[in-house]
Amino acid sequence: MSALELVFSGDPKLFGIVALSLFVTLSATVAACVIGLPLGALVALSRFPGRNALIVFLNGCMGLPPVVVGLLVYLALSRSGPLGSFGLLFTPRAMIIAQAALIAPIVAALTRQLIEDLWAEYRDELTAMAVGAAGRVATLLWDARFSLVTIALAGFGRAAAEVGAVMIVGGNIDGFTRVMTTTIALETSKGDLPLAIGLGIVLIAVILIVNAMAWAVRGWSERHAG
Amino acid sequence: MLDSPRDEPMRDRPSTLPIAFEAVAFAAGETCILRDVTLSLDAGPATVLIGPNGSGKTTLIKLAVGLIAPSAGTIRYAQPDRAARRQAIVFQKPVMLRRSAGSNVAYALKAAGRATDPASVMRLLDRVGLAALADRPARRLSGGEQQRLALARALARDPEVLFLDEPTASLDPAATKSVEDIVAAAAAGGVKIVMSTHDLGQARRLAGDIVFLAKGRLIEHAPAERFFAAPSTPEARAFVAGELVI
Fold it and tell me: Which of A5, A170, B172, B204 has the highest CB neighbour number within 10 Å of its CB?
């Protein structure tokens, strides 16, 4: 069976892998945004000792190797690790944690830069209106929402494409923690190229579709919200 | 002036005026932008700041509002707590929040701790002639409409003193008149206006007293009628005569 026939045949195994991949990556993206957006905004608006070091650290974490993140999460979740009692290792939840840890710094660092630039524009206006710190964060995040969608997409793309972290903490268990990228790596090594190519096509299509939808929503929102 | 009974506590706050500058200076790095300014902004007719570019008008307004702190000298406020001052400012290029015109006003009302019900929002929009554009995205309004929306946001604070930093600098005559009418109505309602402008005609129309600045110094402060009839300094005479004062 060719790769394209496999994609369009509705193969349940392939469908299961795609569904799990989407669940893990979307969950990780949401978690990373919940952590990274307010963190980035707070760093942008705050002045405290060590702020510059934190910014350098966040920016540096944008280039974290997935296998290193996977290893750190593995150590944390392993039976002898600090979170070992939760029994999360080799589960989809461990994969979500690993991907969220991988992309949260990306979301935070890009948000910090975006919000800092926006704050330079809004500072006098919001200060004159006596808007408090929490109000400033909320206002800037809301007014930057269209650009933040792009940042979230960057995180989604990074998470969807990575293989090292989910391989280490998920274990690539067939039917349980096997996602698109780990399957592609495995099937290529086994020589089953149609499945690997088929999943590659689906992976690229998913990323393009998600980006196209986000672009459409952004365009519609900008027309209606200004 | 009261929009609802919920606004009454704001009226009960101590007065924001006078604001007294005592030998105030402001420097940005090595550049001295304002020096040795002694001035009192008191309740009453509009105070209009005039002077050439770089004379320190915007800096003086930002100092008065409390957006920046003086490098030297003292500014004494009748109400020391900035958050409790009944003051508002309209900038030359106001920032429109990414939401509708009505939501911009609701935001300002909420920031001022006032009722944000649709009736209060529409009352303010109606006051600046934008009621029909309540649902339009604020950033899609024209320059004049954005300036009027900024005025509505400022009035949402129910200010005792309203600062305006060259609010009509980039507007055509019709839009300028709309803004001036709103400012004049606010002044007639008891709001102290402190405004900077390049436009001598506008200063003649609106000013009760004139503060003339040049090269970061306060050159002359006089009632508008006297200032325009007989300016007492050579710089002011040259400026009123339309000569280039650099």
Answer: A170
Are B12 and B72 within 8 A, CB to CB? no
Concatenated DSSP letters of A81-98: STTGGG--TTSHHHHHHH
User: What domains appear along chain B, each with residue ranges and CATH number?
Assistant: 5-240 (3.40.50.300)
The ipTM of this complex is: 0.86
Cβ-based contacts of A225 with chain B (< 8 Å): 98-100, 137
Domain presence at residue A11: no
Nearest to A224 among B89, B137, B138 (CB): B137
Picking from A124, A131, A225, the nearest residue to B99 by CB comes out as A225
Q: What is the CATH number of the domain that holds A50?
A: 1.10.3720.10
Q: How many domains are there within chain A?
A: 1
Model confidence pLDDT, tens digit, residues A11-24: 888 889 999 999 99
Residue ranges of chain B with per-residue pLDDT less than 70: 1-14, 246
The pTM (predicted TM-score) of the whole model is: 0.84
Query: What is the structure's pLDDT at A1?
Result: 59
Greatest Cα-to-Cα distance within chain B, rounded to the nearest angstrom: 53
Q: Is residue A203 part of a domain?
A: no
Please list every residue in chain B whose beta carbon sits closer than 8 Å to the beta carbon of residue A146. Answer: 98
